[in-house]
Design a protein that fits this description.
The complex is a heterodimer of chains A (169) and B (62).
Chain A lengths: L1 H8 L2 H18 L6 H20 L27 H4 L8 H4 L2 H13 L2 H12 L4 H8 L3 H23 L4
Helix pairs in contact in A: 1-2, 1-3, 1-7, 2-3, 3-7, 3-8, 6-9, 7-8, 7-9, 8-9
Chain B lengths: L3 H6 L1 H5 L5 H12 L2 H17 L11
Classes of the chains: A mainly alpha (169), B mainly alpha (62).
């Protein structure tokens, strides 16, 4: 619960408040759940809602317009940009390098720059490993909207990482 | 024949193994001849894995 709340808000104090809020709601709701799966699903939904509400009107960092960090296209369907950038492939670098030092800072900044609705689906799917249907239930949106948002969030992160880790564009 | 744009549009479903076999065949044929798309797929897949790992989603001060 804390991981999800922190993942969306990126603020430890807010995340702790959210966990307390959700616990209170669980206690108030009592035993009205049909099994653990229903409770887990409800907790994901409530935590996501409370975290997104907490963020509303509280923009600590400038969030990127995703259009600035999504691929652009030529008329014939090729990706636009210099070839050195298009073929930049940093994927073979070891975890030790990508999850520490400068590369880790770049990753953290890239995640911070995502709008919170995009961070929410990213953490629910890629960190909590929920299905697309479960993510859709948690965020109160359609499966197709969730899939689109998830793909755009990953593309944006990939683009930011490649601009910083790959050869100059 | 799929374009680069078509390929990148369906990468999430490709990684989830949620595409019909004929689309997978088309996509893999495209990948075989397109270095930019191979680089894109490799870095997209790695981005997904990196984003899922701590410490990026965890509180840095705890």
């Amino acid at each position: 619960m804390y991981r999800l709340a922190y993942g969306i808000t990126r603020n430890p104090a807010d995340a702790e408040e959210i966990v307390q809020d959700v616990f209170l709601q669980v206690v108030r709701k009592g035993t009205g759940f049909e099994g653990r799966a229903a409770l887990a699903s409800w907790i994901y939904r409530v935590t996501t809602n409370v975290a997104l509400n907490k963020r509303r009107g509280k923009r600590y960092q400038v969030e990127t317009s995703l259009d600035d960090v999504l691929p652009t296209w030529e008329a014939d369907g090729h990706r636009a940009g210099p070839r050195a950038f298009l073929v930049a492939n940093w994927s073979e670098r070891p975890d030790a390098e990508l999850l520490s030092g400068e590369a880790r800072r770049i990753l953290e900044e890239a995640i911070d720059r995502l709008p919170e609705h995009y961070r929410a689906v990213l953490i629910l799917k890629d960190v909590e490993e929920l299905s697309n249907e479960e993510v859709a239930t948690a965020v109160g949106d359609s499966v197709s909207a969730v899939k689109t948002r998830l793909h755009r969030a990953r593309m944006a992160l990939r683009e930011i990482l490649t601009r910083r880790l790959g050869p100059p564009a | 024949m799929m374009t680069c744009h078509d390929v990148i549009d369906v990468l999430a479903d490709y990684l989830d193994q949620a595409l019909p076999p004929e689309v997978v065949a088309d996509l893999e044929r495209h990948l075989a001849g397109c270095e930019p798309c191979r680089a894109y797929l490799a870095t997209y897949r790695r981005t997904r894995a990196l984003g899922a790992q701590p410490p990026a989603w965890r509180c840095r001060t705890r």
